[in-house]
Design brief:
Layout: E1 3-7, H1 12-23, E2 27-33, H2 37-47, E3 51-54, H3 60-66, E4 73-76, H4 77-85, E5 91-94, H5 102-110, E6 115-117, H6 120-136, E7 141-143, H7 146-155, E8 163-170, H8 188-191, H9 201-209, H10 211-223, E9 231-235, E10 241-247, E11 252-256, H11 262-270, H12 284-287, H13 301-312, H14 316-332, H15 338-351, H16 360-376
Parallel strand pairs: 1-2, 1-5, 2-3, 3-4, 5-6, 6-7, 8-9
Antiparallel strand pairs: 8-10, 10-11
Length: 378
């Protein structure tokens, strides 16, 4: 029986991961969440892990009391997340949201645990550190993002040195085709109405601004060791082509499927096996037509900001990520307008000098400085 530990278990990716575990008899040894004690308790009683963790330390006693009759060990805080990451399992699944996922990933690598990764910030903020550590410890990282999973699948049986270009696809979000002046009065409710995917609030807003694609651009650079100049983004409104790889002979291999995250989640958990998955089969005739377009880098400044950040290197990817994370929270709270998110991301590239990233502490400092920058400029 395969075993996993899972952080971020109550989010969209986390709950679907548990569905895959249930279908394929994967043993869940540990679960962790930020603050949803009710759902975590329900998951713990269903899957009977050995350990659970609540990141918000103020909720530790409540969770401990809820599970007092189960014999399940209850942890809290970053220390608890890292203890879960170090457990002896076949796979550490990181579906946490935000910078909180970085240190547990580094901890899992140091303990030699293979990783199924859905936490974008791990590679956006700490890509060089993470990939260097993974290579040193001979740890495999299996991407869960549908786009990176698609590229990973397209590379199977092919030589990395023969890759000419990675082609990342984007849905375009709910505001595809809109210009800046049409987005001045966008509400959180409008931005949360994604046309194809059902996701958590933060990633859905990131899809509306195309920040999500910018973060994936940075991730792809690290995951696959590809220079930014050899990564292209195209918009596929139907979200059927999940991404593709162009090789030196100009052959292009793409991965297609219905827009359902259980496919890449299951591939990461069961690699290299392909078993039955609880999704609809893809019917080309039902779609009829697939469309492709270039992204609008002028309107969607978050995307252009991310591309510039990884081209510069250093702490810039960490900075734009932290700025965006703070700005999205402010937008959802009604404190800044939609377009201000992209403005802050672009402005942060001018506000900070080149900062090297040689340690986790360097990342923490850059992250904190970027968040403070947002609070001072709204």
């Amino acid at each position: 029986m395969k075993t996993i530990s899972l952080i971020g278990s109550t989010g969209s990716i986390g709950t679907q991961t548990l569905q895959v575990c249930k279908k394929h008899n994967i043993k869940v040894r540990a679960l962790a969440v930020k603050k949803n004690t009710g759902l975590l308790e329900a998951q713990a009683r269903e899957f009977l892990p050995e350990v659970v963790c609540i990141y918000e330390e103020s909720l530790y006693k409540e969770l401990r009391d809820r599970l007092s009759d189960t014999g399940i060990k209850v942890l809290c805080g970053m220390e608890g997340l890292c203890e879960i990451a170090s457990l002896d399992t076949d796979l550490f699944v990181n579906s946490a949201v935000g910078m909180v996922g970085l240190l547990p990933t580094l901890t899992a690598i140091e303990h030699g645990r293979d990783i199924a990764l859905a936490n974008k910030e791990t590679l956006v903020a700490g890509g060089h550190l993470v990939m260097s550590a993974a290579e040193r410890k001979n740890v495999r990282i299996y991407p869960i993002d549908s786009e990176h999973s698609a590229i990973f699948q397209c590379l199977q049986g092919n030589k990395r040195e023969q890759v000419r270009k990675l082609i990342l696809t984007a849905s375009g979000g709910p505001f595809f085709g809109k210009k800046k002046h049409e987005l001045e009065n966008v509400t959180p409710e409008q931005a949360l109405a994604h046309p194809n995917w059902s996701m958590g609030k933060k990633i859905t807003i990131d899809s509306a601004t195309l920040m999500n694609k910018g973060l994936e651009f940075i991730e792809a650079r690290w995951l696959f060791g590809i220079d930014p100049e050899n990564i292209e983004i195209i918009v596929n409104r139907e979200s059927v082509l999940h991404s593709a790889v162009e090789f030196d002979d100009f052959s292009v291999i793409g991965q297609m499927g219905v827009p359902d995250m259980k496919i890449p989640i299951q591939y990461a958990l069961l690699y290299p096996e392909r078993l039955d998955c609880d999704v609809k089969p893809l019917s080309f005739t039902d779609y009829g037509t697939l469309t492709f377009a270039k992204p609008d880098l002028e309107t969607f400044e978050c995307l252009s900001g991310c591309i510039e950040a990884i081209r510069r290197g250093g702490a810039y990817p960490c900075i734009v990520n932290a700025v965006n994370e703070e700005a999205v929270g402010l937008f959802l709270d009604g404190k800044i307008p939609f377009l201000k998110i992209g403005e802050l991301v672009l402005e942060s590239l001018k506000a900070f000098p080149m900062l090297p990233v040689e340690s986790y502490e360097d990342i923490k400092k850059a992250d904190s400085a970027a968040r403070e920058y947002v609070r001072e400029n709204i």
